[in-house]
Amino acid sequence: MPDSLVIARDTFWDFGPPFHYYDLIQVKNDAEGLVLDQVLVTPHGQACMQPATVEERVVILHKTMADLLQGRNPCAIPEKELRRELKRCKKCPVFSGVNVMMQVRCGGTDRQLRMDILDRDIYDRRTQTPSNTSWTMSLLSQLSDVLGPGSEEKPIFPVEPAERHKVPDTALVRAIGDGRCDGLFGPQAGISQIVHEAEQAPSLPPSVEIESVAPFAPIGPVLPIYPPIAKAARVEGVVNVTFDVSTQGNVENVAMDGPKMVALGVKDAVSGWKFPESAWGSSGRATIRFSLNCKVSAN
Question: 259-263 long-range contacts, Cβ below 8 Å, gap at least 24?
């Protein structure tokens, strides 16, 4: 049995963005069992709502390498079998699935084993999944049980900008960022570039600003809420508001002009404004700007 192995996994979905999630799992023997070091690299999805991220988890699995691999030595798997399994459904439409590359040390040299998991292997119990692919699925399932959920837990349609986390400064993350793992995923993945993108400074969060209120200023005006659906749809702009001030200083007869999606909460906010006695019985106008503050091009 090998003392260590590396698994590069490209999980792809037919809905997104993002459509791909990349993770690298390093497994090493330790006195307590197996050290699992996983780095999950997620490309950016909707601009400024889903920034590129790099997450790392390190856990101890109290098993031997033989137990984890269920007694199957990857060095002993014939290359002919792997090629046959990769060609088993060459013309079948595949909408989601997992491309797996395993790297192990065999006889003093590194060997790479490619095994593709099709969507039918995951979702259709009637599928006769080949032996090595089935074994790979079982291996990944064991690792996920310990490492926790992965891309399947990521939001499909975020309505709030994701919190940006610092990229871990560890040996495995640096190896990915330096391009030393690009060969495991293929050059088209650009995984090292995604790491560099995740290291960039985050954009400012979406903002709502009262640009002007005339001819009188309200007393402690409440800002409208930026509707989450408008953020997700990347709608921004200016809402022009006209209104009357009652003889008690309340706002009446609110009328608006501007993007309807961001104007949803403006009427409620402006209707709650109060004005000083000098403004009672007058009419007023206001300009309110909704800005995404997003410097990333939309997908």
Answer: 259/230, 259/235, 259/290, 261/227, 261/229, 261/230, 261/233, 261/235, 262/226, 262/227, 262/230, 262/235, 262/236, 262/237, 262/290, 263/239
